[in-house]
Amino acid sequence: MKSIARFVGAVMAFGFVFNVLSATAADVAPGTPPPAAAAAVTNASPARTQDNVEFIIGPNYANAPELTVREGVPKGAIHEFTMDSEESKIYPGIARNRPGTVPYKRKVQVYVPSQYVAGTPAPFIVAQDGLGYASTLPKILDNMIADHRLPVMIAILINSGGGDAQGSERGLEYDTVSDRYVNFIESELLPRIAKDYNVTFTTDPEGRATMGGSSGGAAAFTMGWFRPDLYRRILTYSGTYVNQQSPFNPVSPQGAWGYHAYLIGASERKPLRVWLEVSENDNGAKRDEASLHNWVMANQRMAAALKGKGYQYRYVFAEKAGHTDGRVTRQTLPEALQWLWEGYQPK
Q: Does residue 170 lie within any of the structural domains?
C-alpha cells in the first residue's frame, strides 16, 4: 500500500494528465482516421501516469462512448446456449457442503461480428463470468470493429458452473493453478461452438485473448500462463491473485498468490501481454500480507513482477472504486481492448 501512495504522490508532483488510457500513435493502425466514437471520455477524472504503462484513474467515472449504440454500425449476431454438467468429462460438478457429484448448468453466449466470413480463421476472446459482460462487450466490439480499432473477432462469454470461492464449481474452475480450465475450453467448449455456429477459430496464439474479473481474471491469467502456445493476450479486473485455491495443491501451495510471490520471477518470461486493474477499495484492501487475501497488494505485486521480468503490461489503479467495479469496466474496457490487441497481424 505504501508504494501505491508513493506512486500517487509522484504522479501528482509531475502533473501528468492523459485521457483515460489514451492510445498512442502505435495503438492505431497507420492511416486509420480517429473515429467519433473514440472521443475522450467526458465527466471523468483524467488519468495520471508517469510512463504510459501504470495509470491512476478516478475518483469520478463515466461510460466510454464506445458503449453507445451508433446508427449505421453493423451489429454482430448473439447466440446463446446452455452446457449441462453431464456433458463434461473435466468438470462433472461440485458444490460447497454437498458431497459427491452435483449437477449444474452453465450459460454461454457467442458474439459473431457481421463482418465475419464463414471459414475464415478468426481471432477471439474468451470472457469468464461472461454474461456479466453481455450488455457491454458486444456493443464495444460492434463499434470498434467498424472503426477498424479491433480485428474482426469473435467473443465467447462463458459463465462458470456456479457458486463462489473454495468448495464451489466456480472456485474449482477459476482458482485452480493448473491447465485444467484451459483444457476444458479447448476440448469441450470451442469444438462445440465451431460446429454449432459455423465459425473457425484461429490457432495463432497471438490471435487468442482471455479476460475476466475477480477469480475470472485469475482464470484468464492461468490460461495464458500454462498455455502460452494457445493464449497470449490477457485482461483482468480486480484479479484474484490471492490464495483461493481449493483443494490444496502442494505444487502451488499459495494458489494464485504464488504468481507474483515466486512463479513469475522464477520462470522464463512467457510471450504474454497483460492488462490488469485493481481498485482502491478492493477485496481485502485492509488485510495484512500474511492473510494472502489482499487484492490490492496482490495486483500491485503482479504489476511489479511483470515489470521486473520485462513483460508487456499495463496496470490501472482505480481510486474510490470497489471490487470489479462496473463504473471502472464501463470506462476502461474499450481502450483496454485496443491496447490488448495492439500489434496483432492475422496470419
A: yes
In angstroms, the CA 326 to CA 197 distance is 30
Q: Is 104 left (phi over 0), alpha (psi -120 to 50) or beta?
A: beta
Q: How far is CA 332 from CA 17, 105, 132, 326, in A?
A: 16, 31, 16, 10
Q: How far apart are CA 22 and CA 38, in angstroms?
A: 10
Which parts of 113-193 are beta strand (E)? 121-122, 124-128, 154-158
Share above pLDDT 70 across residues of the chain, in percent, rounded to a whole number: 88
Q: Strand, coil or helix: what is 216?
A: helix
Question: Does residue 346 sit within a domain?
Answer: no
**Span 41-57, pLDDT tens digits:** 678 999 999 999 999 99
b/e for 303-326, b at 16 or more Cβ within 10 A?
A: bbbbeeeebbbbbbbbbebbbbbb
Q: What total of structural domains would you count in the chain?
A: 1
Domain-embedded: residue 347: no
Q: Judge whether 245 lies within some domain.
A: yes
Q: State the residue range of the domain holding 133.
A: 2-340
Helices 2-14 and 295-309, packing angle to 10 deg: 70
Q: How many CA atoms lie within 13 A of 175 on its CB side?
A: 28
The runs of H, that is alpha helices, within 85-125 are: none
Cα atoms in the 13 Å half-sphere on the side-chain side of 177 = 20
Specify the pTM: 0.89
Which CATH number goes with the domain that contains 44?
3.40.50.1820
Tell me how far apart the alpha carbons of residues 161 and 334 are, in angstroms, rounded to a whole number.
27
pLDDT in tens, 2-15: 444 444 443 333 33
Instruction: State the pairing for strand pair 121-122/105-112.
Output: unpaired
For residue 310, give the 3-state DSSP assignment. coil
